């Protein structure tokens, strides 16, 4: 029996800024047939939460299975700076390195750690993880013309009648297809990571994906105002959206933009989601065409969420649900109760031990995550009572019912609490109204925090 038949292949698809915004999540206005089809054959996670609502650090947690230890580590090149040019040790730098050490051929392309080239200042961000990293030299192209973002002239979206391959994700899908063809002739099990850019800003997508939606029918945010009784410290001015791109209107903390402009931006986001869904579909279709789907685990992971005007925020970088909840779909070839979604809580930090178990390799000691393979076998299983996330001076705890967050900059402390049974859109902070809930949740938050914010009271 060939090695590839003994161990499963793993196709890992990372999608930038993809909140749980698929038809499969019950959003009937979304046109995402390929990811929906995967969910119908796999396990859709309705409560997957990232530890950090920004790209680089969230990916660092996913790759290492380790929570960040302080707010100083929240910056995009964190993992690259930590690993690049360092000697190889017995301890694997990432779960990809661990798979490589255990007989897997590992190949990556697109945005996996943070840099699309896979490098940090000419040195590989993950120097020992990859057998091959396929660099898409023009991966940072944001607009069809090749222009870079400019807050004075370039908008946060683009609609042109162009081919899918005009933008990096279209070309990335073709690279992935070619690599799958190579893997199909190998006896060695493979781990292949493909990192798509959209729907990260700017929301650039070919016109045909915009045409899938009628702007008049596009829904606005169900919670476009700042939550009642929430402190300003939990809000932010959406500086990426309003500060790095040209916008005819300015919003931010407690300030809404017009409904007309909001619909235009949301339309652009929807088009970007449908565009990336189509690219994922091309890769999955090739996997099936080659017969590799019979022994390949597929993981689709969104690195964090995104506010589409929710709580007056356009972007990520918050401790609210919309910034921390993201897409997660896992399909195994021997899945029980396939197509059944799960409400069980899981975290990005859980990816590492889960992949180890699925691949049949030992789990290194010292990981912070918990394997959720039991949930893949039974959607009603539970591996966690809570998930902890963090952003700058805020730690945020999510249980089955509550979102509880604490801001502490070493000088002052604020709290916010939302009851998701009664207020799933997080419209009213009930921290002062329900001190008994705070009394129960604060010790758990402190226990899970492990010193990230040392001054919590």
N-C termini distance: 59 Å
CATH architecture: 3-Layer(aba) Sandwich
The residue-averaged pLDDT reads: 95
CATH topology: Alkaline Phosphatase, subunit A
Spatial strand arrangement across the major sheet: 6-3-8-1-10-13-2-14
Distinct helical segment count: 13
Cofactor: Ca(2+)
InterPro entries: Alkaline_phosphatase_core_sf (IPR017850), IDS (IPR035874), Sulfatase_CS (IPR024607), Sulfatase_N (IPR000917)
Family: Belongs to the sulfatase family.
Pfam family, one: Sulfatase
Describe the structure.
Helices cover 28% and strands 19% of the residues. The protein has 457 residues and is an alpha/beta fold. The chain has a single domain, classed as 3-Layer(aba) Sandwich (Alkaline Phosphatase, subunit A), CATH 3.40.720. The chain has an 8-stranded mixed beta sheet, sandwiched between helices. Strands 15-16-17-18 form a 4-stranded antiparallel beta sheet, with helices on one face. It has a two-stranded antiparallel sheet with strand order 4-5. A hairpin with a 2-residue loop joins β4 (119-120) and β5. α6 (168-183) packs parallel to α9. It holds the Pfam family Sulfatase. Residues 8-361 form the Sulfatase N-terminal domain. Keywords: Calcium, Hydrolase, Metal-binding, Signal.
